[in-house]
């Protein structure tokens, strides 16, 4: 359910559960967190996070969410691992991003999305709290009022508005999504891991 291409400096992690809108199970989240940590140890310089099909991720698998996954610490473990990765992390969003899946994307350095993507995080409606680091990362990107619109107002944001707000950094045609992400990673991939990490530390 997770595709892992760990070839040298670039690691590509793909959510592969399109028949379930790439909804996330505990096993998938644990595999992602473990792989990101391994990429860091093994000197990867860039990670590309994407999905298969027309949805990036609908969030937690509903059955597992009801059984406790919605409030499990594994979400925070994954986003923390991504945030701590010393190289460049790019979320190439092949479609809609919803719920807890937003945490891993907020932790990335760059977010690209296809024109049809939508963004929402319905924790208020579902009666859950967001994962601990998500509100601060969201507010840092789009401001506190807009973060509350999403988290408390249940707002569903389309790609153009997400770009205007700063939630995503570029809208890219579906067929050019991977190519654009790779082009943005090219300079980092050509650098040494130490150089990439040093530059990343300079950016708050």
Task: Report what the structure shows.
This protein is of the alpha/beta class and 204 residues long. The protein has one domain (2-202): 2-enoyl-CoA Hydratase, Chain A, domain 1 (Alpha-Beta Complex). 44% of the residues lie in helices and 20% in strands. It has helices at 26-41, 62-66, 74-84, 102-106, 123-126, 134-142, 144-151, 159-165, 177-190, 193-202, and strands spanning 2-7, 10-15, 46-51, 55-57, 88-93, 96-98, 110-113, 118-120, 157-158, 170-171. A 6-stranded mixed β-sheet has the order 1-2-3-5-7-10, with helices on both faces. A 4-stranded mixed β-sheet has the order 4-6-8-9. The chain is globular, with a radius of gyration of 16 Å. The model has no long low-confidence stretch (mean pLDDT 96).
In short:
The protein has 204 residues and is of the alpha/beta class. It is 44% helix and 20% strand. The protein has one domain (2-202): 2-enoyl-CoA Hydratase, Chain A, domain 1.
Write the topology of this structure.
Blueprint: E1 2-7, E2 10-15, H1 26-41, E3 46-51, E4 55-57, H2 62-66, H3 74-84, E5 88-93, E6 96-98, H4 102-106, E7 110-113, E8 118-120, H5 123-126, H6 134-142, H7 144-151, E9 157-158, H8 159-165, E10 170-171, H9 177-190, H10 193-202
Parallel strand pairs: 2-3, 3-5, 4-6, 5-7, 6-8, 7-10
Antiparallel strand pairs: 1-2, 8-9
Helix pairs in contact: 1-3, 6-7
């Amino acid at each position: 359910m997770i595709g892992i291409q760990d070839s040298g400096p670039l690691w590509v992690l793909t959510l592969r559960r399109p028949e379930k809108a790439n909804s996330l199970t505990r096993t998938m989240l644990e595999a992602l967190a473990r792989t990101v940590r391994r990429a860091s140890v093994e000197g990867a310089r860039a990670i590309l996070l994407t999905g298969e099909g027309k949805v990036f991720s609908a969030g937690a698998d509903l059955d597992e969410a009801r059984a406790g996954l919605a409030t499990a610490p594994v979400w925070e473990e994954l986003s923390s691992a991504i945030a701590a990765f010393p190289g460049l992390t790019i979320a190439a969003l092949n479609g809609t991003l919803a719920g807890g899946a937003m945490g891993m994307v907020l932790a990335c350095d760059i977010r690209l999305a296809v024109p049809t993507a939508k963004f929402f995080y319905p924790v208020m409606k579902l009666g859950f709290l967001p994962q601990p680091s998500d509100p601060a990362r969201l507010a840092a990107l789009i401001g506190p009022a807009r973060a509350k619109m999403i988290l408390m107002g249940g707002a569903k944001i389309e790609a153009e508005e997400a770009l205007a707000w700063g939630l995503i950094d570029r809208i890219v045609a579906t067929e050019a999504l991977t190519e654009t992400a790779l082009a943005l990673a090219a300079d980092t991939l050509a650098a040494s891991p130490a150089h990439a990490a040093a530059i990343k530390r300079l950016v708050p």
